[in-house]
Amino acid sequence: MLITKMKEKFPNSIIKEKEPLSLYTYTKTGGPADILVLPQEKSEVVELVEWINENNLSLTVLGNASNLIVKDGGIHGVVMVLTEMNNISISKTRITAQSGARLIDTSYAALDAELTGLEFACGIPGSIGGAVFMNAGAYGGEVSEVIDTVTILTRSGEVKELKNKDLEFRYRHSAIQETRDIVLEVEFHLEKGKTSEIKERIEELTLLRESKQPLEYPSCGSVFKRPTGYFTGKLIQEAGLQGKIFGGAQISEKHAGFIVNINHATATDYIDLIAHVQKIILESTGVELVPEVRIIGENILSQ
């Protein structure tokens, strides 16, 4: 069998068959991956992509899956989860983080090194690779402001180093969304700061996040991009949708910009609730809400 050959070829990688992706997503939803692989090193990723291409398999790459919904039918082919590649190193004012490292951990590594510039990211649970993919940001900051270079692997198997300008960053967007390149490593260029000031800002933002966001439930983070001239949460509140429940998914009563899993929600519950919100807001205000959350995978086929 193919998976047996794969395990023999890559003994250092964690490889599983028909693995539920609900174990890996922040929403705790999602169907199985045909084959799930968690490589340990960058070199393994390069070799895996070469092998996957040779065997004509489809490949989906995931990080921390914090702003992601995987449909209930799961994902065909190979799903590569990069969270085992999480090394963070520091040299003077530069931090190099592998794609599977959490953005939160990277911001705290910056604090330990007395480096300022990543305080805004202290509450973003996504991976470094995911942060590059969507130009993650919060509280007035975005990763594009502090990224120097990104090492990527093309889908054809070529390793390249891209400069910030090559990534075409804009609000919740990078060129990676079109190229589908795999982020291997990111180098941040920060500035020296005072530990007390950096710590104070992190504590301030952490308190703000804990007071406003529904961290007590599984969620996919901020569901919609902020429409120009509006606040998404306010639009949803004014439409009377806050607290709305579809299946086990609910528009958070704490922050209307979030959808939380309150009772064994399915991905379909999430997707249907998102569509309902979009429909009601468009009809009542004329504003088109565009999902920030990424939705991937297969629908469950009817029996």
Any overview of this molecule?
It is a single chain. It contains eight helices and 19 strands. With 303 residues, it is α+β, with helices and mostly antiparallel strands. The strands form six sheets. The chain has a five-stranded antiparallel sheet. The longest helix is centred in the C-terminal third of the chain and has 19 residues. The chain is globular. The two termini are 27 Å apart. The mean pLDDT is 96.
Give the overall form.
globular
Overall number of strands: 19
Strand content: 25-35%
Order of strands in the sheet with the most strands?
6-7-13-11-12
Helix-strand pattern, N to C? Answer: HEEHEEEEEHEHEEEEHEEHEHEEEHE
- Quaternary form: single chain
* Measured distance between first and last alpha carbons: 27 Å
Describe the sheet with the most strands. 5 strands, antiparallel
Compute the CA-based radius of gyration.
20 Å
Would you identify the regions where 5 or more consecutive residues have pLDDT less than 50? none
**What is the helix content?**
25-40%
What is the overall pLDDT average?
96
Class inferred from helices and paired strands? alpha+beta
Helix segment tally: 8
Fill in the keyword field for this structure.
8 helices; 303 residues; five-stranded antiparallel sheet
